[in-house]
Design brief:
This protein is an alpha/beta fold. It has 2 domains: 5-174, Spore Coat Polysaccharide Biosynthesis Protein SpsA, Chain A (Alpha-Beta Complex); 180-258, no CATH class. 42% of the residues lie in helices and 24% in strands. It contains 8 helices and 11 strands. Strands 1, 2, 3, 4, 5, 6, 7, 8 and 11 form a 9-stranded mixed β-sheet that branches. The longest helix is centred in the C-terminal third of the chain and has 30 residues, at 231-260. It is globular, with a radius of gyration of 23 Å. It starts with a strand and ends with a helix.
């Protein structure tokens, strides 16, 4: 493989046989590809080995699951190049991002990282248009200039130690089309991780956010991010984000409520007390 970009791409994976190939294909030209597997039992490892056998600059590691942030930090620490790109197994570079990478990597020393847009694949629509994307996240970082916050249980991100800019063009394509039955289970799991993280850090009930965050979440995705351009599929995507927001805030509220007022069946307790008093 011709490796022209001074870039380490790092991926964490578990049973990603159906998605990982397209991700790796989009990384052609990277000098270093770090893949950390946490125990795949499908064809993921054989797929990776097939790329290694064809000369791709992949270094494969096996590591017991450390949590999202811990696993990605482990992978980041293994990178060799001056720039490191965090990419998930179900993501891939679009053509515009590939074309923009040389300029991003040539940034002056005052820039330590780049925030990259991500465009999801919507069932019944396809990838959102280039100007309709999710929030930009820090994905491209100079080696040694940022670390993951290991206290984050979900939606983990790199904490940079310098100036970060938004990439002017290009995006990651996110392809994991799962039906709503499965998507709600995913949002439920992610909201649990987020709520537990915040409560463990001392977060009390956020009544204002419980009421207003879900509709604001929807409006941000649907109007500001432009999902309205994608018809009913965009509406569903924005509503799913609002559901995640509601579940997170509701779980925070209930976890705090259970601390101050544990659930007790007062009616049943009173009935038992009355029966006890009637005993001779």
């Amino acid at each position: 493989m011709e490796s022209t970009l001074p870039l380490s791409a790092f991926i964490i994976c578990l049973n990603e046989e159906d998605y990982l190939g397209n991700c790796i294909d989009s990384l052609r030209g990277c000098r270093d590809i770090v893949i950390v597997d946490s125990g795949s039992t499908d064809g993921t490892l054989a797929l990776i080995q097939s790329y290694i056998d064809r000369g791709w600059p992949i270094r494969l590691f096996s590591e017991k699951w450390r949590g999202y942030a811990g696993q990605k930090q482990f992978a980041l620490d293994l990178c060799r190049e001056d720039w490191c790109f965090n990419i998930d197994a179900d993501e891939r570079f679009d053509d515009a991002l590939r074309a923009a990478l040389p300029a991003l990597l040539a940034a002056d020393d005052s820039v330590v990282g780049w925030r990259i847009a991500r465009r999801p694949y919507l069932i019944g629509y396809g990838y959102t248009p280039a100007h309709v994307h999710e929030r930009r996240n820090l994905r491209l970082i100079r080696r040694g200039r940022g670390r993951y916050d290991l206290s984050q249980r979900v939606h983990e991100g790199i904490r940079p130690d310098g100036h970060v800019k938004a990439a002017p063009s290009g995006s990651l394509l996110h392809f994991r089309p799962i039906i709503m039955d499965q998507q709600i289970l995913k949002e439920n799991n992610y909201s649990t991780l987020k709520a537990d993280q915040l409560v463990a850090a001392g977060q009390g009930p956020r009544r204002f956010r419980l009421i207003f965050n879900p509709p604001m979440f929807f409006l941000r995705l649907y109007l500001r991010n432009g999902l309205w351009r994608c018809g009913f599929t965009g509406f569903i995507e924005a509503m799913t984000g609002a559901v995640y927001s509601f579940l997170t805030e509701a779980k925070i509220y209930q976890r705090n409520a259970l601390r101050t007022r544990p659930s007790v069946d007062d009616v049943d307790r009173g009935a038992k007390s009355g029966r006890a008093e009637q005993q001779p």
